[in-house]
Structure prediction request, 410 residues.
Amino acid sequence: MIRTVRRKTAVLGTAALAAATALASFVLVNQSAGAETAAPGDASAASDVSAASDVSAASDVSAASDVSAAQSCGGGDAIVTGSQSSGFTSTYHGQTVYQGEYYITAIWEAIGALDPNRGSQERVSVMASGWIGDDNTIDLPSHTAFEVCGTLDTGYAAGKGAVQAIGVSDVSVPYMNMTGAPYFGMRFADVHGLHLGDIDMYLSGGLGIRFERDMPGSTDVTMDDIYVEGAGSHAVETWNIDGFDIGRVTARDVGESGLLIQNSTDGWVGTVDGDNVGSGTGYATFRMANNNGQESDGGYDTNIWVDNVISRGGGRGVFCVSQSGGVVIEHVDLANNGNNSILIENCYNVSIRSGTVNGGGEVRVAARDEFPNTRDVWIYLEVNNTSVRESPCGENVNWDISGNASLDIC
Prediction:
């Protein structure tokens, strides 16, 4: 991926199909995978998980080393097959490396069978579906592509991801079908050259994808098409990324944000699409916080580009806060948000270039006393059936509002 400030045309992966499930009310400190034990040896607690339907896709991948580019799921160097009722088999280049009753052990053995001296990616294809058990994680080493073509049912591992990559490089997850209530579905930090392809998470709690705050940052991160439903917290939360391309994030019935980016620079986002995201909270379908977009010299030259934000109901639609900025949002389509449709608070160099807001909470530019005042804002919108307010007055705030909205601006 070329890490320069740029505008790009969206190239999106295959759209995920949304299943109708109830809104999850779990939080990170009070989750349960519904399983009896942390040990993979408790086969009685594991249940068969139905295979996901169509997982084929042909997403463009920027990393030349991604061995899964333009391929459908399956056909890896190491393959996991079987079922909970018949047992699982792991092979590496056709040679059996594990045969037994435990899904998580089959996955561990498949990853462990990869060439330890490889200098480019080898791929693990998990064709089987199963439950990985509580307190178990799948750690991805460098030069590894890991895909789940069946369905991976997560357990609960406090502070960890069901799948995680920490302090590694050249890692990809081309396909993932995940269920359960994990602490984190996927967890990353200090990872360089990461590709997430078509990721579908139908959760009953937890957080979908998390990049850690208090660990070294990551570079050159690509996400093609992320679908998260039923997370109790955020669908996707990032910290400390320098250089990212995110094709699409779709969030349905999640407890907090759809896409939350923090302290990250040099990024492009295609579409963020949220329905019933952060209901009853101050979170948003698309949220930027904690110095996001602030460059190393302290400035806010434009380095974050967003093509489109779609939001229906839930909490806020778009929220920029806590000394973030340096962002252009090309288009928004917001309706009936329960909190502010848009809130720009203590942010700098923010442009929303087109779009519509219909009903829901007000469009507002604001500021709190603990940070420098909001400045250099441009908003060009059609706003109907709600209000537009600037309070307190910002610096160099520019409005171009059509529609029937009431205006209270400086």
